[in-house]
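so ive been stuck on this for like two days lol. basically i have the seq below and the ligand is magnesium ion, smiles is in there too. i just want the complex predicted, nothing fancy, no docking runs or whatever. if the output looks off dont worry ill sanity check it later, just need somthing to start from for the group meeting slides
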Amino acid sequence: AREKFLQTIERIDINFQEVFRELFSGGEAHLRLKPGVDPLEAGVEISVSPEGKRLFNLGQLSGGEKTLTAIAFLFSLYLIKPSPFCILDEVDAPLDDENVERFLRLVKKFSQNSQFIIITHNKRTMAEADILYGITMEEPGVSKLVSVKVKGD
Amino acid sequence: AREKFLQTIERIDINFQEVFRELFSGGEAHLRLKPGVDPLEAGVEISVSPEGKRLFNLGQLSGGEKTLTAIAFLFSLYLIKPSPFCILDEVDAPLDDENVERFLRLVKKFSQNSQFIIITHNKRTMAEADILYGITMEEPGVSKLVSVKVKGD
Amino acid sequence: MYLSRLQIFGFKSFLHKITFKFDGQICALVGPNGCGKTNIVDAIRWVLGEQRPTLLRGERMEEVIFHGTKSRKPLGMAEVAITIDNSAHLLPIEFTEVTITRRLFRSGESEYLLNRVPCRLKDIHHLLCDTGMGVGTYSILSQELIDTLLSSKEEERRLLLEEAA
Amino acid sequence: MYLSRLQIFGFKSFLHKITFKFDGQICALVGPNGCGKTNIVDAIRWVLGEQRPTLLRGERMEEVIFHGTKSRKPLGMAEVAITIDNSAHLLPIEFTEVTITRRLFRSGESEYLLNRVPCRLKDIHHLLCDTGMGVGTYSILSQELIDTLLSSKEEERRLLLEEAA
Ligand SMILES: Nc1ncnc2c1ncn2[C@@H]1O[C@H](COP(=O)(O)OP(=O)(O)OP(=O)(O)O)[C@@H](O)[C@H]1O
Ligand SMILES: Nc1ncnc2c1ncn2[C@@H]1O[C@H](COP(=O)(O)OP(=O)(O)OP(=O)(O)O)[C@@H](O)[C@H]1O
Ligand SMILES: [Mg+2]
Ligand SMILES: [Mg+2]
């Protein structure tokens, strides 16, 4: 069981590098178990550096870089065991225009195997959706579904 | 000293209500010291409810509502003792288009007395600025100033 | 396997029953601040068996029931029903369509249904464990989880990793 | 009173000396993720006397010095200079223009200057206290502070309130 677990960690690490490099157009990323501790207990260490940069700890990453790194981590788990659906709640808010595009390209790719529900205020993200649900509160405090747009309308 | 402090708290409370109502186009907001504790030690309680809604604790507010409430709190302190400058780091990211407009109207009003430095990815916010500094990393990891736009250009 | 339908009634800001049909690979939910979008995410967590009120932004589970507005009285019950297409039989159950329903009453009583047949919460937990959609799933990402994932707290990353491995 | 100029050199991602002239009531800083915008905010906190590395997203103060890239060596010193227009004499000092300079060397040594005259860190703290721009100021708002302000931790709100009251 320990063997299998360690092999899975290695696969997740490879996925993590791959997805990270796609979101950052390059760079290095590694995921590993804390060394010197029982693998069945060890914490998960992440070390990343965007293309050309040197990083000493995750805290030095910018807001947008943290978001992309977390997305890469999550999707690296997906590639092992795809979850049937994926809900993203305004994760595109801290991203600049170019990173929103990279993020959407990744979502498009993964949407072939998983269903995505994305909450967003971003017009570019809305344009990528197959179906758009509009929610408002005409009456204060009471949610109401107001519109449904299907792509191609 | 205790008298003066309590009077200031009351002024801050009034400011808080005023700014909150401007950002939320209505609603109720109160700020007070925890009752039953020495005013010189008591924590600060905030209770708000956007127009027409009932709220039982601050945690129930949405992401955007929390941002507006925090801005209202900060500006209510400003009205007591204006800070010479105010730095806002991407606070507009969770706001919908209408709330960005209300936020910008408030900033315009307060900018008569304080200087604002606003970090943003939002095009509407950029349009309100008198001066726009563009920063990039042409060389990875090295910040560079690339453009300065002055309003009216 | 995918989400085909979600019905929310009496849960948080959903005074009126609302039905979402997720007929597409990418569905966007949009609307002004505070209109109920994250409440929908909370509803999905809840119907899939979430027991921690803090993960639903509350202190007690009772807080998920519509608590009224300045002009509306509180409701006595919250109900969420999620329908999952199971043609690929990822869920270990013979039905090709599975509907999980969860209800909570102000009295504190709860009801759980699997395709309209009453069951216990742990039947729902058993059904969903190992599918990637159970409690503790890595299928829901928000700004809060992003900060936790990149903090020095390695346990959160560990838990999600174990869910997948 | 307002910020008239900010110079950053060797601080975080600012390998090259960069000068900002804030000649307007509303100045926007824009650019792609990770380009250095929040680093500018850190630089302002730091030159105004911030002593907690955690408020600067680091674990040790030394981390504010440019630490190199794949193709550039680290620098040995970080320097930030802020120039404040003091015609209204809000700062208790006779100059109409006040420049505060802070330097940190890899050795751990620090230098502080007030209008190019060496001084101690506490001279800067004294100068700025009660002006709304000292350490612990409510002049800087970020998503992190928003979450703290609205959490159940009442101390943060209390501290900011005391700063104003
Ligand atoms: N039990 C409840 N009963 C009635 N209303 C509730 C209840 N719990 C929360 N709400 C309301 O739901 C609103 C928050 O909704 P939600 O968090 O879904 O907003 P949102 O659409 O995600 O907004 P944002 O874009 O700002 O994130 C609050 O205004 C709150 O008053
Ligand atoms: N001591 C240092 N030396 C060199 N580079 C550093 C140092 N500290 C931080 N950095 C770099 O600064 C970058 C982060 O910059 P910053 O947080 O200012 O980004 P930002 O412009 O605010 O981005 P966002 O829009 O995503 O918030 C990181 O990529 C990091 O590599
Ligand atoms: Mg939300
Ligand atoms: Mg930033």
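Chain C touches chain B at residues 31-35, 37-38, 57-59, 63, 67-71, 143 (CB under 8 Å). Residues A 53, 55, 60-65, 94; B 141; D 12-13, 31, 33-39, 63-67 surround adenosine-5'-triphosphate (ligand 2) (CB under 6 Å).
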